[in-house]
Amino acid sequence: MVTAVRHPKGAPFFDNDGALLASGSVTYYAAGTTTLVDIYSDGDATSALPNPITINSAGRLQDGSSQPTAVYLSDGAGLDFKEVVKDSAGTTLYTDDNIPRPEDPNSGVVGFTPGLTAITTDTSTTIALGSGDMGDMRNANTTSNSIGYNLPAASSVSNGKSITVKKVTAANSVTITPNGADTIDGAASFTWSGDGRAYTITSDGANWHTRDSHTPLPLVQSDLPSATTDASGLVELATQAEVEAATASDRVPTLDIMHHHPGVAKVWAHVSVSGGVPTLRESYNVTSITDVGSGHLTVTIDTDFANNNWACVVAAEEGGSPSNASIESGSQAVGAISIRNRNSGGTSTDPNSYQLAGFGDQ
Fold first, then answer.
1. What is the DSSP string of 74-140?
2. Which of 16, 41, 175, 257 could hold 69 in an S-S bridge, CB 3.0 to 4.6 Å?
3. Which residues make Cβ contacts (< 8 Å) with residue 183, sequence separation at least 6?
4. What residues have CB less than 8 Å from 270, skipping those under 6 apart?
């Protein structure tokens, strides 16, 4: 209910000649009628006054106990007002008709957040909200449990009236559920779990709408959608174990652990040979190479494999005659491997180059 003060406590009344009106009365009707209406001494419209109300000898309004009082009008009946002032003899001195009833300044403004009238902290699992809670802010302390707020019927709340709900702790979630067939943003309910996030819920007289009132920084995971192949969003970084398992479809490896994927080479090298001297041209995870002899090369690995069971692929570029590169028997270790190159006659001979790649667990 919206109220407005018509006469503050202690306000004097005067007659038509401008003299103080010593004794008299004021009567309030529905505008244009002689139907009496309710008037109040307080802004909450909880203390009704007699109507007509008496003007004392000092020209001030007084309640039924002869105490000075203010007069408040309300929008409860949905009617405008008429005020009639009379002297002590009951003669009408003046009439003020079509006094506008009090109006909520936020009425009809969907999405506008009115000034808060109260702030309440809630911990119960279920909170039933009424039309009288509109304009309030509710702090949802979800430390021990999730909290569900049940809204009143949107039709019982003036168009444009709102309530704000803020989740003040990290655990659990908050759910807003409309009444009956009412919807909230077209859905049957609205839920969020972001710590410190607040929403203002506004009635349009038939359904409810939300507006993100406050999103704290930094953003938390629940504030953003997950990334997909078609849309941007939040994606979690993969651990080394997840990269090695190569099964997660919702993780992204950083560059420093990408090589742990089983499908990625852990070591590779390109070694050219000129005049019997091998030279390491390009490589990854290679500490050094050693020329053991003609057609015989040892490659030392920087970061070792986990065991000797890693897969090695070797090749050789022909150096004037057919070449056959192979792993020297028994040479494959966690941190080194030796390569042999032989011609078609089985003689060790230097190729133009060696190529090597290794796959496995490190």
1. ESTT---EEEEEEETT--EEEEEEEEPPP--TTTT-TT--PPPS-EEEE-SSEEE--GGGTT-EEEE
2. 41
3. 207, 208
4. 280, 281, 282, 283, 353, 354, 355
Helix H or strand E segment including 267: strand 267-274
How many Å apart are CA 34 and CA 48, to the nearest integer? Answer: 19
Residues 174 and 231 in one domain: no
Number of domains into which the chain is organized: 4
219 inside domain: no
Q: What is the pLDDT of residue 260?
A: 86
What is the chain's alpha carbon radius of gyration, rounded to the nearest angstrom?
Answer: 43
Note down the domain range covering 335: 267-359
Residue 299 corresponds to which tokens in the numbers above? 């490659």
Q: Is the Cβ–Cβ distance between 176 and 146 less than 8 Å?
A: no
Residues 173 and 240 in one domain: no
In the listed set 65, 99, 133, which residue is the last one of a domain according to the structure?
99
pLDDT category, 211, cuts 50, 70, 90?
confident
Query: Is residue 105 domain-resident?
Result: no
- For the segment 266-298, what is each residue's pLDDT rounded down to a tens digit? 999 999 999 999 999 999 999 999 999 999 999
**Residue 109 is assigned to a structural domain of this protein:** no
Q: What is the pLDDT of residues 125-147, one digit of tens each?
A: 999 999 888 888 899 999 999 99
What global pTM score does this model have?
0.42
